[in-house]
Design brief:
By secondary structure, the protein is an alpha/beta fold. It has one domain: 3-Layer(aba) Sandwich (Rossmann fold), CATH 3.40.50. The chain is about 30% helix and about 20% strand. The chain contains 5 helices and 5 strands. A 5-stranded parallel sheet has the order 2-1-3-4-5, with helices on both faces. Helix 4 links the parallel strand 3 and strand 4. The longest helix has 11 residues. It starts with a strand and ends with a helix. The structure holds ligand CA2. The site of ligand CA2 has 16 residues, from loops.
Length: about 140
């Protein structure tokens, strides 16, 4: 039994409700219940926040006891030195995840403060990326 947490950042609470052409039409809560059934041999926790400091606090809280963190930091990926620094300070391996292929989008999405401190990066596979990330731990 592995302890894994999915941390989703800003605006990802809107999944399934806006911009379905980019992010699909499924809410994360619906997808999470499927994930939990599929990986019932793992403990899969979920946290979402639109607030940078709250994401950092959660990383500090789980970053020494969990087996894996799946982090979709949303737009903070491209701006947050503070989240990048938080990842340097924790022990649990982090998989950076993006639903969309950020390299096929605007140039500002090609920068990541998460990647240098991540075990690996999964992007462009839609929600299925979360399954790929879970199976990587
Ligand atoms: O592709 C991803 O997973 C992103 O992390 C999503 C972020 C974006 O800023 C990153 O560049 C890539 C945006 C999340 C916004 O999600 C929404 C979902 C539905 C409607 C509106 C926004």
């Amino acid at each position: 039994m592995k302890r894994i947490i999915i941390i989703n950042g800003p605006n990802l609470n809107l999944l399934g409700k806006r911009e379905p052409e980019i992010y699909g039409s499924e809410t994360f809560e619906d997808y999470l219940s499927i994930l939990k059934k599929k990986y019932s041999d793992h403990q899969i926790d979920y946290y979402q926040s639109n607030v940078e400091g709250e994401i950092i606090n959660k990383l500090h809280e789980v970053g020494f006891s969990y087996d894996g963190i799946i982090l979709n930091a949303g737009a903070y990926t491209h701006t947050s030195v503070a989240i990048g620094d938080a990842l340097k300070g924790i022990e649990t391996p982090v998989v950076e995840l993006h639903i969309s292929n950020t390299f096929s989008r605007e140039d500002f999405r090609h920068v990541s403060y998460i990647s240098p401190n991540a075990k690996g990066v999964i992007l462009g596979f839609g929600m299925q990326g979360y399954e790929l990330a879970i199976s990587s731990f």
